[in-house]
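Q: I have 224 residues here and want to know how they pack in 3D. Can you give me a structure?
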Amino acid sequence: MKPTSIVVAQLVQKDVRLSKVVYRIRTAPQTAAIQQQRNAQSVHHCFDGAWIKIASDSAMVAYCTGLGYESSATLSGCESYCLSISGCNAVDWHPGKLQCTPRQCSYYPPKYASHSGWEVWAITTETSTTTNLVWVKVASESLMGDVNCAEVGSDESVTWSLCESACLALSSCNAIDFSYGGTRCTYRHCTTYPPNYQSASGWEVWAITTGTSTTTNTTIHVAE
């Protein structure tokens, strides 16, 4: 027969193990639910500001091409599903049944028809192009001279940056002959780019050209 102290110790040990098992069973679903909720919140936050609700109790149906279907999706999940599909820019979403149909529309805002319980959501982008003036060194040991480009002014004893700034202040100036040895600057108006030039020791030919940068922005349009 086992001593009483040993039996009690074994019972306590079993009780501790059982408590740990019960604790794990009770907490695991709660932890998973909390993590799922956090994931849903973070996904929805990622797309805040990108989508606009176009209409309620409506659906695009035949007006836009269907790209799939999800039988159970939150709004953020439906949006994420759409963004994962090439060409998708709108969704028909049913908040009651959590049904989602991603679509591709060829115009914004998309057309829609009356459909009880459904909502129309869409995303659109606008592209803007910015033109920048860029100085380009066309040639070294050369100058344009009056034979190639008309003179519109000149300065003595100026740095290259001041020569450039002064040219930009003149409406007709788009090129400069700059003497880096004597810091002389001649402002010129050229009708071609790059301008023609000729050999001349101690001079540099600089001209303005244009560069463009394109920016695509997500724009929110409020439906009337």
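Q: Anything worth noting?
A: The chain has two domains: 46-123, 128-216. The chain has four helices and ten strands.
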